[in-house]
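**Discrete fold encoding**
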Amino acid sequence: MPCKTKSRSCYHAHTIYGYICNMNWHCKFFDTLSTAELYSLLQLRSRIFVVEQNCPYQDLDDKDQAALHLWCNDEQGLAVAYCRILPAGASYPEVSIGRVANDTAIRGKGIGRQLMQEALDSIRKHWGAVPVRISAQEYLQRFYESMGFEPVGAAYLEDNIPHIEMLLRAK
């Protein structure tokens, strides 16, 4: 279910592939995030991209301020799944999804697929039926292909991790 509130935030629960997801889904633009929400999102991003992937890099790239942030919390209120949606022109000519992160505790339960579906629903709500570009870690190429993304171009290294650009064409 995409976000549908005028305040630009929402939450709801889902049943995902037989797994009861009692987590709350939220989507907010940067200027509506509380400091506690922002801290939780940055903490998850750091835990996954810097610590788990052993990849020190400059995460704060001045694009968060233009982004729509989509995440879900566990029952304790901690962010466990997240992505950042950027408007066309912020990173690519197309709307883009990036910083896709799932906590190790929820992997293999369909939450990543739900996160991407929520992101695509939110894009349609905010920008209509537009193409969407991602820079995917190469080992996840098949997952993104199952969501309708197609590889565009050759694989490349980003922060010493193999990536591939992929595009979901407007429907």
Observations:
- DSSP finds three helices and ten strands in the chain.
- The two ends are 19 Å apart (CA to CA).
- The first helix runs from residue 35 to 52.
